[in-house]
Amino acid sequence: MKKGNWIFIFVLILIAGLSRLLPHPPNFTALGAMALFGGAALSNKILKVLLPLVALFITDVILNNTVFAASNEGFTLFYPGALWTYVAIASIALLAPLLINKLSVQKVVLGSLMASVVFFVISNFGAWASGVLYPMTLEGLATCYIAGIPFFANTLGGDVLFSGILFGGFYLAGLKMPKLALIKN
Q1: Fewer CB within 10 Å, N or C, the chain?
Q2: Do the Cβ atoms of 6 and 42 come closer than 8 Å?
Q3: CB-based contacts of 129: which residues, under 8 Å, 6+ apart?
């Protein structure tokens, strides 16, 4: 992969990550889309996971110390439960090449659905496993997943919209600059 390609992809991922700083409905973000895009567009196994995690970390630090500063005690790098979000994003990036090996609208939509489901399953499991909000029983786990259902529509909507923007934008850029066309259609 040429240096300019991964830099361009990183800039797209960073912009997607920074979109979290704009007002948005709960869970309507580009998190899943940036992991899906990074995982599919990058060939380097470390970069495909690392770049979405870096974008997530940068925006987490900003959000933790501005928007959520009142609920934190001093400077905060990671919020409680952040590990589960990071695991979800890394998992999406690792699974992306299995679904999006050739660019098509169908594969991007299917990948977006997969990203949403992976995020839902892992993040809600993490909320339950923390033992703070739900009892550590199967009933508590079921209650946790049921409580997360109202947020799933926003997760799915954000993943589909931002995946369309990232993959579509990258595809259009590849038409203008063929050296950027990493994902063959």
Answers
A1: C
A2: yes
A3: 84, 136
DSSP characters for 69-117? GGGSSS--SS-TTHHHHHHHHHHHHHHHHHH-SS--HHHHHHHHHHHHH
Domain boundaries, given as residue ranges, for the chain: 3-179
pLDDT digits (tens, 9 = 90+) for 21-65: 999 999 999 999 999 999 998 888 899 999 999 999 999 999 888
Q: How far apart are CA 103 and CA 171, in angstroms?
A: 8
**Distance separating alpha carbons of residues 180 and 151, to the nearest angstrom:** 35
Judge contact between 96 and 38, C-beta under 8 A. Answer: yes
Contact 127, 144 (CB under 8 A): yes
